[in-house]
Amino acid sequence: MTTISGSGSALTSTLLDTVNGTGSTSSTSSTSSTSSSTSATSTSSTDLQATFLKLLVAEMKNQDPTNPMDSSQMTSQLAQINTVSGIGALNTTLSSLATQINAGQQVSASTLIGKNVLATGSDLTVASGTATAAGVKLDSAASAVTVSIVDASGKTVRTLNLGATAAGVTPVSWDGKDDTGSTVSDGSYTLKASAVNGTTSVTATPLAQAQVASVIQQSSGTPGLVLSTGSTVSLSAVAQIL
């Protein structure tokens, strides 16, 4: 066993064989793969280069005279180190770019403060017989879409059949009346939606009107809209600006 000066770690004959190219093909491949994976996650490119130079010096001192170092293998190892360095620099650049994009989106989202939007939600309000805007978002086309308006006690006061509906956002027009044609009492209601395409269920997401109160940065770094309903939605959850 040979110790590399200054590193404090032992250089085994197996490692020397790997660098020399004197070990078996499978062993070399396995060791190279394991070394690349570990180095990429636990050390910086500068540490990799320093380690490689120490290995190179140790190799020159301990190489097999009957099978000297293969220059093509050394070139390959240097290329691998440069690749690791390049990937590290690329990751840093992409992270910086993502941060700048998120900051730009947050500034743009601030223009929505005080505006009404149609976003993911199910809370409807009726005031003076007029209901707030609503809608349904379908993941795919449906042959039948049913929307139900439920009051605070859990009773369905109005059922709307939208029929065949294309994928995407579809506005729901509710006149604030129940199934008998009578105007419902002012207050809070809940929107429920279901959809099918033949016998296959289709995901139907209810959308409700709300006012944007403020903009925050979410844990993911992306902007989030705090709505007047108290919920927070991502910018992508806004289906329509009213």
UniProtKB/TrEMBL annotation:
<dbReference type="InterPro" id="IPR025963">
    <property type="entry name" value="FLgD_Tudor"/>
</dbReference>
<keyword id="KW-1005">Bacterial flagellum biogenesis</keyword>
<feature type="compositionally biased region" description="Low complexity">
    <location>
        <begin position="24"/>
        <end position="43"/>
    </location>
</feature>
<dbReference type="Pfam" id="PF13861">
    <property type="entry name" value="FLgD_tudor"/>
</dbReference>
<feature type="domain" description="FlgD/Vpr Ig-like">
    <location>
        <begin position="127"/>
        <end position="198"/>
    </location>
</feature>
<dbReference type="Pfam" id="PF03963">
    <property type="entry name" value="FlgD"/>
</dbReference>
<protein>
    <recommendedName>
        <fullName>Basal-body rod modification protein FlgD</fullName>
    </recommendedName>
</protein>
<keyword id="KW-0969">Cilium</keyword>
<comment type="function">
    <text>Required for flagellar hook formation. May act as a scaffolding protein.</text>
</comment>
<dbReference type="GO" id="GO:0044781">
    <property type="term" value="P:bacterial-type flagellum organization"/>
</dbReference>
<keyword id="KW-0966">Cell projection</keyword>
<feature type="domain" description="FlgD Tudor-like">
    <location>
        <begin position="105"/>
        <end position="238"/>
    </location>
</feature>
<dbReference type="InterPro" id="IPR005648">
    <property type="entry name" value="FlgD"/>
</dbReference>
<comment type="similarity">
    <text>Belongs to the FlgD family.</text>
</comment>
<keyword id="KW-0282">Flagellum</keyword>
<dbReference type="Pfam" id="PF13860">
    <property type="entry name" value="FlgD_ig"/>
</dbReference>
<dbReference type="InterPro" id="IPR025965">
    <property type="entry name" value="FlgD/Vpr_Ig-like"/>
</dbReference>
<feature type="region of interest" description="Disordered">
    <location>
        <begin position="20"/>
        <end position="43"/>
    </location>
</feature>
